Amino acid sequence: MAIMVRSTAISLALALSLGACAKPTEQEAEAVVSATENMTAASFGCIRDLTQVDRFFVGNIDGDLQATVAVASSEDGGIFPVGSVVQLVPGEAMVKRAEGFNADTKDWEFFEFDVSPEGTAIRNRGHVDVVNRFDGNCLECHAKADERFDMICSTDHGCDPIPINDAMIRALQKTDPRCGAPLELTTEESEGLAALIAATGGS
Ligand code: HEC
Predict the structure, then answer these.
(1) 152: which of 33, 76, 79, 92 lies 20 to 30 Å off by Cα?
(2) What are phi and psi of 151, to 5 degrees?
(3) Contact predicate 19/12, CB 8 Å
(4) Which among 153, 154, 200, 203 is the best mutation to test ligand 1's pocket, defined by most ligand atoms within 8 Å of the CB?
(5) More confident residue, 183 or 1
(6) How confident is the model at residue 32 (pLDDT cuts 50, 70, 90)?
(7) How many CA atoms lie within 13 A of 82 on its CB side?
(8) Given pLDDT bands bounded at 50, 70 and 90, which one contains residue 175?
(9) What is the pLDDT of residue 203?
(10) Which of left, alpha, beta for 100 (phi over 0: left; psi -120 to 50: alpha)?
């Protein structure tokens, strides 16, 4: 009899703990919805307020900056966590959306911006059909990155090169109009910026 009572007590405790488990799981499912769902132009600002990792800048809109930096700085690559924001230049960004956003882009959303002292305006955003101001499709290039690097091109992951050299990249980063006063440019960077403005008609 005593044994029976104990086993009833155990199954009751089990049922209770299973019941207790079910609830937080539902809540968790709600909690994991990413803030990337609600991103607008106002979600983006001065590129230099993000964290610099090597050549580019990263952030995480869902708060896990450490996880994003860990993948971005790993020599072996890795899958970027949901919420990751990656920017090389002020006018473009990649944002890691929640799983299921788009399998072809590995859930990256591509953005193209117009930036000014007033802030950010979104020129173009989406997945497979976003093109940059040189008429290049973001995905076509970024998909060529070695599988390990989750579509991050850098200089040696296998993507076709962009028509912007290092001095131009640094100049664009230093003169993001959303950051206030520009940082001082080297002669090479000033010349690069002038050439770039001439090539793109200032857009
Ligand atoms: C012609 C190929 C090409 C196209 C088109 C292109 N990219 Fe890239 N992208 C690159 C390469 C190559 C790099 C690395 C350049 C470097 O580090 O000097 C890069 C770098 C980046 C980075 C920094 C992280 C990384 O991959 O190194 C972001 C973010 C980015 N591009 C976003 C975009 C977006 C958004 C678009 C479309 C609006 C776009 N790119 C279109 C080739 C391309």
Answers:
(1) 33
(2) 75, 10
(3) no
(4) 153
(5) 183
(6) low
(7) 14
(8) very high
(9) 55
(10) left
